[in-house]
Amino acid sequence: MNRWKMPSICSIAKQSTIFGLCATLIAPTIPAAAWAQPVGLPSMGATSAAELSPMLERSLGQAIMSQGRRDPTYVDDPELSQYLTTMGRKLAAFAPGAVPEVEMFGVRDPEINAFAMPGGFIGVNTGLIVSSGSESELAAVLAHEIGHVVQRHIARGMTQQSQNGMLMLASLAGALLAALAGGGGNLAMGVAAFGQAAAINRQLGFSRDAEREADRAGFQMLTKAGYDAEGMSQMFSRLMNASRLNEGAGGGSWASTHPLSIERMSDVQNRVRSLPPSRHVDSDDFWYVRAKMRVVQGRDAVSLRSAGQQLQDEAQALSGVRQSAAYYGLALQAFQRNNLTEADRLWNLASANGRSSAQLAKLSVDIALARKDYPRALELAQAATKRWPEQRALGIAYAQALQAIGRHAEAQDYLRAKIKQWGGDEPSLYQMLAQSEERNGKPVQARRDLARYYVMTGAFAAAESQLQQARGLSTDFYEQSQIDVQIKEVKDKLAEERQLLERFKSG
């Protein structure tokens, strides 16, 4: 039986710009033999279950994410995170068995790739979004990754009865512990830890049986969620062609982690043919987010020029929402160059014929803020939040406009209301609330809310530091007592994380 050739660690480091991983981060601690591809799924016996229960797996994923959020390729963008996570949760709601807890995040990388990490955290490359020809194609890959989460393939692969999985976990846990020892502020170690997590995913190389399981679970989620079943067949065909034509790039990453085969393609195509014809209408959000990611993934002058040319070609050749999205991408690119006049001109082209979207509304607020036209920014943001009340990026823009105009008391009230609504998915709201509280002469509360932001992002050492500052500033005994309780809770969480990592480090 023909198998896809697994790339070496060095080739992975060269091919992947996911997290800037260098092979020397892994090679000294893990023998080459330990990275062999699992040939099948191990049985989940008592030992495996004890080593990586769903709760421990989630904790491990959270520990990785706490470092990875500081990685320069992590895309900290509310519009993208809301779009991906909404899609992911929509798909997961139709998962076979219990609904998994999933959290999607973007990665600035032009390769066509997505990867699942322990605990249901799924990274999505900008290259995958940009290369998707339809929303159903993108949803197909996300559904496949959620399929791996549902079947617990990551946990099962990492805790197989050989020592391979434990060596991988030990290396990863060691990197995370080193980052914790540095107080959570060591950016280089954060990059290494996240990079190792991605490398583990690559080196596990799911077996063909695991891939078929993920395909079938993903196909079920895709169709039940209302997406076009043909999207999975089209995306697999696109990935196979890309990996054949450009081995090691453009499709090689996903293909190396998820070995594609004619058999898998035939299985998916047969399933598509067994269903009645259906057509999913792509959301406008898909096209605007796709255009934005084309701009976001540009890292240098050459890639930015290429992105600009592609958007210009689309703006000239297409019509309707796709033309509008292309002009929006060009306007965003001009905005990033601080060419506000050109950004405004292109924004008007994107908005021609009454075309509107939450993304266009957000960019108009950003342009007004950049011009320091704060009353206009507030007016635009207020209107946009009324029209698209569920869009978190617009809510953040409205709070920023209130802060820019000096209305911090209103900003605090608004942010507290939004924290009740979105706080679990948008930690930055606490960070903004702390800024307004500081400006309004509430330094103790500002530090307590900033500590909440750090707790939600897994930076427990930074949270403790903020709480210690808050206690030193407070003169109220009862408030000090409350802060002491918070400090203990944070210390306990930090100790739990260290104990978890020490456990895996010792193997």
From TrEMBL:
EC assignment: 3.4.24.-
Cofactor: Zn(2+)
Keyword Metal-binding appears in the UniProt entry: yes
Signal sequence, renumbered to the chain: 1-36
Xref: Gene3D superfamilies: Metalloproteases ('zincins'), catalytic domain, Tetratricopeptide repeat domain
Enzyme type, top EC level: hydrolase
Keywords: Hydrolase, Metal-binding, Metalloprotease, Protease, Signal, Zinc
The organism's place on the tree of life at top rank: Bacteria
Molecular-function annotations in GO: metallopeptidase activity
Residues covered by the Peptidase M48 domain: 81-271
InterPro entries xrefs: Mito/Outer_Membr_Metalloprot, Peptidase_M48, TPR-like_helical_dom_sf
UniProt-recorded name of the protein: M48 family metalloprotease
